[in-house]
Amino acid sequence: MVGIVVVSHSQKIAEGTVELAKQMAADVKISAAGGLEDGSIGTDVSRILAGIEAVQTGDGVVILVDLGSAVMSSEMAIEMLSDGSNVKIVDAPIVEGTIFGAVQASIGASLEEVINVLAGTKSYKKF
Fold this sequence. Notes:
Elements lengths: L2 E6 L2 H14 L5 E5 L10 H11 L5 E5 L3 H12 L6 E4 L3 H13 L4 H10 L7
Parallel strand pairs: 1-2, 1-3, 3-4
């Protein structure tokens, strides 16, 4: 099953997004990597790396980011892996993307299928 890591500058946003997605897909491995160790705003490569390792099942991992240094920190974490080829940062809305990705992962979608669904969330209309 594809795993998901939510990277936000805010620990509360990352944790809340994971909590919401778990309501839709409880069996999916989803990790929150938000904020700095002291609770302040920012991104932390070691937290992201731990998040990836926590959800890695061999089927791949998608990382959803909020903005700015979350991308750079996620790229650095992937580079630190012995094999980061199946870990992908996806340009998608963090909340909707996490939920849609979790639902797709829960039905056994491949990494490519999850990424394709996440790409579609960029134009998702709420009403």
